[in-house]
């Protein structure tokens, strides 16, 4: 286990999947990562195992929180129950979408390691290694943030005069009368909180991680374009996808020359990256849209609970940590979307750095055509009917909207 979380991992640029090592360990034990090379019976047993975990520690967990609403008396009670419930309902939806698309997600990780995405010169190593480190440290950051939040939630009931569970929930018996019953329910909710947090940061960082890797490949392509006139003859181990592209490049090299073939390689690589971005976006966009929409209510209700008159210092600290987790979650989505848009917007500048006007007529035309292709803006959008663009402006709008709803609810409470 220590080898998985060592602080300075040495990355192999030809094994980019290794940057997801922590996510894959968590997903494996949570029943969300079926063995890729196992037989059908083994995969079926594993899927049942994953369903049992989710039913017991997520779906049943959500039901007890929904039933709590039959006893709410005012807006503070609603805020106390709703900010956690919205997180759980959204998580349940995201996990079912993740489980439904697991075959495509596993295929994306396999594609990430194909020869096409291997750096082929020293200058191309840097963006690839940087992306791998970003993915790894993003997981570390969210994992430790979740640990602090879990500790805050489980410790805060100790500061109350009466027995209180970490999360508001309804049960068909009075758990306050029996120490054993209260302890068992407390343990059940603690396990549920830990699993929910692990589900969240493990699945969310799959989208963010893939996008960060693609951003690194975009930067790497920029290096390839800037040095397009330099020949690269280093042999690399090929897989089927790279062989088909390599064959097309060799045909152009024989008829139009080596420099022309390198331009075609950049064009084909560019198309492949955009196709990969579309695939990742298509897999995760319903889940992220649900998270973005729910975050407005979650942030608003968390702030409302934190600003209540009877809020204890322990509850205030728990709300602050939870607010930090939810804000970080949305910020990371918007950040990676912003990074993809920014990196793709640099393509025209990268192409302009090459001496395309010094090339022969066919090569010059190919580079100008490539420049026109790269002028199209690439934005990561989520949602089907209502489209939301993931960028930093969207993040600020979510924060403003949450604060506006909070002001309305506080005015209603004062009346």
TrEMBL record:
GO terms for biological process: signal transduction. The chain crosses the membrane at residues 46-69, 75-95, 135-159, 179-201, 288-307, 313-336. Coiled coil: none annotated. The keyword Membrane applies. It comes from the Eukaryota. GO terms for molecular function: odorant binding; olfactory receptor activity. InterPro entries: 7tm6_olfct_rcpt. It is a multi-pass membrane protein. GO terms for cellular component: plasma membrane. It holds the Pfam family 7tm_6. It is found in: Cell membrane. Signal peptide: none annotated. Keywords: Cell membrane, Membrane, Olfaction, Receptor, Sensory transduction, Transducer, Transmembrane, Transmembrane helix. This is AGAP009640-PA-like protein. It comes from Anopheles sinensis.
